[in-house]
């Protein structure tokens, strides 16, 4: 089980966790349309068991939405999420590899519009035959860094050739927020396991001002709250050596906090340690709404074949519920998924099996 509740967020919500939840469903493109229904099925099954009522609203975002409406993130999608939904499930989007006028990533925009400042990505090995003890949570700052998408291209006056520049933004405000939630997750692990280590990842040896600020503020949050976080071991790791050690010694890492770009790369890379991006979940956490999001892409090569792995979405559904204060239904999902993976009898092709998406869903549902 991931047990990634955050004291300041999930615990507060647990006291007032509503039994009636409106959940936005945003399939997006490609296999997003196949895996998001899996999350819906799981919620419906758990609702019956735990006395929860879910209303679902289908929303659009992605490349197909851009082609149909001229906007990758329609205003109506944002409005409904802000005004009506406590949670949402986001599938995947197919983004063009070359510049298309008017198009920009809808999930990046959604994180900004809804104040989803933290992306929480647990990576855990449970399957048979895996001798690497992987059990880490990567906490990624979700709103700034290079992802503010402030870029320009111009012609250099001296060489007469094109130059492209992008601004990397690291702010004290955003860094304090991500450091606090990472430390709260570490505290939760300390309380349940008796030990916890937070590793701050940066490249301040080169980027002394931007990554230097990230490093400085994370340490400041820790030091000024020693009465609360003093039991947590505090480490730092340069990002390139972090990648090396993560693949060589994944058991060394517990909770990892990183700026947006590094967190994106580290979490996707870490998925290779546990078999597939198809099993790695995430939650985009904000003060008013939580959006579960599998870490895989739209996978156009297998879209429509019914063989996409729904585990990442199912686990993301659990994360969403946990951050909304419903920890017991979330634990039910974790247990069901873990046992299904350990048995390994119903796996999709990315895990070496031949099962369909729905066969995996049915297997998980049978364990509730």
From TrEMBL:
Residues 22-364 form the Isopropylmalate dehydrogenase-like domain. Keywords: Amino-acid biosynthesis, Lysine biosynthesis, Magnesium, Metal-binding, NAD, Oxidoreductase, Phosphoprotein. GO terms for cellular component: mitochondrion. GO terms for biological process: isocitrate metabolic process; lysine biosynthetic process; tricarboxylic acid cycle. The keyword Ubl conjugation does not apply. SUPFAM superfamilies: Isocitrate/Isopropylmalate dehydrogenase-like. GO terms for molecular function: homoisocitrate dehydrogenase activity; isocitrate dehydrogenase (NAD+) activity; magnesium ion binding; NAD binding. InterPro entries: IsoCit/isopropylmalate_DH_CS, IsoPropMal-DH-like_dom. It catalyses: (2R,3S)-homoisocitrate + NAD(+) = 2-oxoadipate + CO2 + NADH. Pathway: Amino-acid biosynthesis; L-lysine biosynthesis via AAA pathway; L-alpha-aminoadipate from 2-oxoglutarate: step 4/5. Gene3D superfamilies: Isopropylmalate Dehydrogenase. Its EC number is 1.1.1.87. Its cofactor is Mg(2+). Pfam families: Iso_dh (PF00180). Belongs to the isocitrate and isopropylmalate dehydrogenases family. This is homoisocitrate dehydrogenase. It comes from Zygosaccharomyces mellis.
């Amino acid at each position: 089980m991931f047990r990634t509740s955050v004291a300041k967020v999930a615990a507060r919500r647990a006291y007032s966790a509503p039994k009636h939840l409106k959940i936005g469903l945003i399939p997006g493109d490609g296999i997003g349309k196949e895996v998001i229904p899996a999350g819906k099925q799981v919620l419906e099954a758990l609702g019956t068991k735990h006395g929860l009522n879910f209303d679902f609203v289908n929303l659009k975002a992605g490349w197909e939405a851009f082609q149909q409406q001229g906007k990758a993130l329609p205003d109506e999608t944002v409005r409904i999420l802000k005004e009506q939904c406590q949670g949402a499930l986001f599938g995947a989007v197919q983004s063009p590899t070359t510049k298309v006028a008017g198009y920009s990533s809808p999930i990046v925009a959604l994180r900004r519009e809804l104040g989803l400042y933290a992306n929480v990505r647990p990576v855990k090995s449970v399957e048979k035959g895996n001798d690497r003890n992987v059990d880490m949570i990567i906490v990624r700052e979700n709103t700034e860094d290079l992802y503010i998408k402030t870029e320009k291209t111009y012609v250099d006056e001296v060489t007469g050739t094109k130059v492209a520049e992008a601004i990397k933004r690291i702010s004290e405000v955003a860094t304090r927020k991500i450091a606090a939630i990472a430390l709260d997750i570490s505290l939760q692990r300390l309380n349940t396991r008796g030990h916890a280590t937070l590793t701050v990842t940066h490249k301040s040896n080169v980027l002394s001002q931007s990554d230097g600020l990230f490093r400085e503020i994370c340490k400041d949050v820790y030091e000024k709250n020693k009465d609360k976080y003093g039991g947590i071991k505090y480490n730092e790791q340069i990002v390139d050596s972090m990648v090396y050690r993560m693949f060589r010694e994944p058991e060394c890492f517990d909770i990892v906090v990183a700026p947006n770009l590094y967190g994106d790369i580290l979490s996707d890379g870490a998925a290779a340690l546990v078999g597939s991006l198809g099993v790695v979940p995430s939650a985009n956490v904000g003060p008013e709404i939580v959006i579960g999001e599998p870490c895989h892409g739209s996978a156009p090569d297998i879209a429509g074949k019914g063989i996409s792995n729904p585990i990442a979405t199912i686990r993301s559904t659990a994360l969403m519920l946990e951050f909304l204060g419903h920890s017991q239904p979330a634990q039910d999902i974790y247990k069901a998924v873990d046992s299904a993976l350990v048995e390994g009898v119903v796996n999709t092709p990315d895990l070496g099996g031949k099962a369909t998406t729905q066969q995996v869903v049915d297997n998980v549902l049978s364990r509730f």
